[in-house]
Design brief:
two-stranded antiparallel sheet; 21 helices; 457 residues; globular; mainly alpha; 4 strands; two-stranded antiparallel ribbon
Length: 457
């Protein structure tokens, strides 16, 4: 396998969700400077779900006009749109427009919607495009997709976003008020003081734009570099002279080794007959339903349900716990892809077992968020270690499940990967729709104050 192709596949995958992931990690720096304040995360949640019109259009085209839509022009368009939108965001994110009697960050919201369309549509275009490469490169692509969350998080960590230290409110009040009023401000309580960022949000958004440029360059090279083309042309599926129907047949024949063909007994021949009309027919209808239900469930948990309560589950243990959980969980995603590259266990039973284990870790995290601001072991170092470990293992196990499902569906053909991307978006949307009213409307979760929360010992 070509190291160059692996690198390009990884860089291509990094462009899939880097823009929206970058928006989320930059929120602590953006929010204080816009009129929406901390309502912005709720707006972003709704905007991202509205952006699913992109995946819906692509999926319907593949369903009703199979073979008509080529992913490559679509990818060029959405990546180009991502480059322009992130670059404009660097200069216009603070601009406001008066609507009625109030100010609103219209440029920020509109550009966020365009970036959401880019990232959501990548789920149903990037994956099918990876069918043009050997199956091993799909795992590398998933590793890059994981890095699309890790890299912005690390840059934000270097930037110093959200880093705070506790300081006596009396000292803070004395520094900002006349001496005769200091006793009124100071009450002996601690106050979270956020450190200034090392560089501005504008620089961060320019960095995101550069990441999208890297994604575009990687995509161009995957299409046109001679060494990548030689590997791609070895696969009969991509022989341009074959009709769409024969491409599936070519892939099926190509996937069998010469030794297997003459050794088939009549019993094995019956066993190898298609078990369903899905893909190559490897799995029965019930197994296909199971795979897609697990895929939707896992993505609902990892992309919407648990991220929406991450601050509630971690902040009671302190800012350090929150940053460790966020960063190490982001590292766990590409690590899971790396493990799947060498240990690609495709057993549906094992997949169900791992999904159950990962859901168990998610249930513990959700329970701690529900108990906020006084979760279990809140005053001990062991509580901090357990919540961080729970986040790492939650992301590690379910990310492995996602990669294995992607590899399984890759073997089932092009349309299977289109449906894979559609179900990923569907699961994420259902998770977000369920959590939005619980978090933002009914306020069922209470935030902890890392400096002042007092809980019974």
């Amino acid at each position: 396998m070509s190291l160059l192709t692996h690198t390009l596949a990884c860089l291509f995958g990094m462009g899939s969700w880097v823009a929206i992931n970058g928006m989320w990690v930059e929120l602590p720096l953006i929010v204080p400077q816009i009129p929406e304040q901390w309502y912005l995360p709720s707006y972003l949640t709704v905007i991202i779900q509205m952006a699913n019109i992109g995946p819906l259009f692509i999926t319907l085209m593949h369903r009703f006009r199979p073979g008509v839509l080529d992913e490559r022009p679509v990818i060029y368009c959405i990546v180009g749109l991502g480059i322009v939108a992130t670059f404009l965001l660097a200069f216009f994110w603070k601009h406001t427009v008066t609507i009625g009697d109030s100010l609103h960050s219209v440029p920020l919201l509109v550009l966020s919607f365009l970036l959401s369309v880019v990232d959501c549509t990548s789920s149903v275009t990037f994956l099918p495009f990876m069918m043009r490469l050997c199956p091993q490169y799909l795992t590398t692509y998933f590793a890059g997709e994981g890095l699309s969350g890790l890299v912005p998080a690390l840059v934000a960590l270097i930037q110093g976003v959200g880093v705070a230290h506790c300081q006596n409110a009396t000292l803070t009040g004395a520094a900002n008020t006349p001496a005769n009023n200091a006793t009124i401000v100071g009450s002996g309580e601690l106050q979270a003081i956020y450190q200034p960022a090392k560089f501005s949000a504008q620089v961060f958004f320019v960095f995101l734009s550069a990441m999208m440029v890297v994604c575009l360059v990687a995509f161009i090279l995957l299409n046109h570099h001679p060494s990548v083309a030689r590997e791609r042309n070895n696969d009969l599926y991509f022989n341009g002279d074959l009709a769409p129907g024969k491409r599936e047949q070519g892939l099926s024949l190509h996937s069998r080794t010469p030794e297997q063909k003459p050794m088939l007994s009549p019993l094995e021949a019956v066993r190898r007959e298609p078990r369903s009309t899905f893909g190559m027919g490897t799995y029965s209808n019930l197994e296909v339903v199971f795979i897609f239900v697990v895929l939707a469930w896992v993505n609902a948990l990892t992309n919407a349900v648990l991220p929406s309560v991450q601050s509630y589950s971690c902040l009671p243990y302190g800012n350090k716990a929150y940053h460790l959980a966020a960063t190490l969980a982001a590292v766990a995603n590409p690590v899971a892809c790396f493990i799947a590259m060498f240990v690609p266990i495709r057993s549906l039973t094992f997949m169900g077992f791992l999904t159950t284990i990962g859901t168990g870790f998610g249930a513990y995290i959700m329970a701690m968020a529900a108990l906020s601001p006084c979760p279990l072991l809140v005053h001990s170092a062991s509580g901090t270690a357990v919540i961080v470990l729970a986040w790492v293992l939650f992301v590690l196990t379910l990310s492995y499940v996602k990669v294995i499902i992607g590899v399984i569906l890759r073997d089932e053909g092009h349309s299977a990967l289109v449906w894979c991307g559609a179900v990923v978006q569907l699961g994420s949307m259902v998770g977000a729709v369920c959590m939005f009213p619980l978090v933002s409307v009914y306020g069922l979760f209470k935030s902890g104050d890392a400096c002042n929360t007092k809980c019974p010992m």
